[in-house]
Specification:
single chain; alpha+beta; two-stranded antiparallel ribbon
Length: about 50
């Protein structure tokens, strides 16, 4: 099982293939992360809460 490095949530292998750099086997942040988000090729702190 593949997990997000930031929050530990499950992510599919397809998600990792699309959203991680080629040299990584996991993602640094995923849609479940409330404190960080992808900003192009970078990761940044979320400016507001993304919780439901």
């Amino acid at each position: 099982m593949t997990e997000c490095d930031n929050c530990g949530s499950f992510v599919t292998e397809a998600y990792v293939r699309v959203f991680s750099p080629p040299e990584m086997e996991t993602v640094r942040v995923c849609p479940n992360c409330e404190d960080k988000l992808r900003d192009g090729a970078q990761i940044r702190e979320a400016r507001s809460s993304r919780g439901n």
